[in-house]
Amino acid sequence: MIVDKEEVEVRKKCYICYRPLSSCMCQCVRPIKTNTKFVILMHPKEFKKTKNGTGRLTHLSLPNSELFIEADFTNHSAVNAMINNKQNLCYVLYPDKNSLNLNTQKIESDGKQIIIFIIDSTWPCSVKMLRVSNNLKSLPKISFTHSKCSQFKIKEQPKEFCLSTIESTLVILELLQFHGLEKIEKTSIEHFLDPFNSMVEFQIKCASGENGTNVRFKKRDEFR
After folding, report:
1. What digits encode the pLDDT tens for the residues 135-187?
2. Which residues contact 152 (CB under 8 A, 6 or more apart)?
């Protein structure tokens, strides 16, 4: 069997950002320290799509974060340990009529460690993950309102107000900063989306053949 050297190069993977080595985004990541702990809960289907996923880029950008891959977190020991620790104040990012809207409401931590669980999945999978994960659905929810438009140009968002995982996390960081719960340098906030923007730019160039490669834009929910 004849092996195409170019194809082999494309298949090589960076085991940090989990992207093809030819489009590794690690050099674009600028980690920022946060008081808040972020826990990215990635659906297994998202793990298979990490070539264009933003959950792992979010994790790499936040040293005070963890990433777990499951569809049902009910019996996940690490997640349960955080939830059951009385020194932690846990929330899950999820739109709900009873959620705490960070645009107008501040999290009152009372000295506890704030932990925000972020579900990294398509909307249908997110709904199911929260429904089957008994430990998560019992947590208080936080949400936000915004007028931003997602820059995920290589993906058709289900709704015009939908943001990718890393874009949503940036909004949360900005609101936590506004409420005085974070003290992040302005330049760090401004560059938080650098790996995301570079990824999108790379894919657009691939689609146009500028990188010597042609790829198709995929339909809704194939990217995240």
Report:
1. 999 999 999 987 666 655 555 544 555 788 999 999 999 999 999 999 999 99
2. 54, 163, 164, 167, 200, 223
Side chain identity at residue 10, one-letter code: V
Rounded Cα gap, residues 26 and 7, in angstroms = 21
Torsion sign, CA atoms 182, 187, 188, 191: positive
Q: Could you give the CA distance from residue 203 to residue 221 in angstroms, rounded to a whole number?
A: 16
Number of domains the chain contains: 1
The domain in which residue 96 lies consists of 31-200
Neighbour-count burial of 49, counting CB atoms closer than 10 A to its CB (0-12 exposed, 13-18 middle, 19+ buried): middle
In this structure, are residues 167 and 125 in contact, taking their beta carbons and an 8 Å threshold?
Answer: no
Cβ-Cβ contacts under 8 Å for 53 (sequence gap 6 or more): 18, 42, 46, 47, 120, 165, 223, 224
The whole-model pTM stands at: 0.81
Residue 212 within any structural domain of the chain: no
d(CA 30, CA 65): 14
Residue 13 near residue 20 (C-beta atoms within 8 A): yes
β-pair partners for 82: none
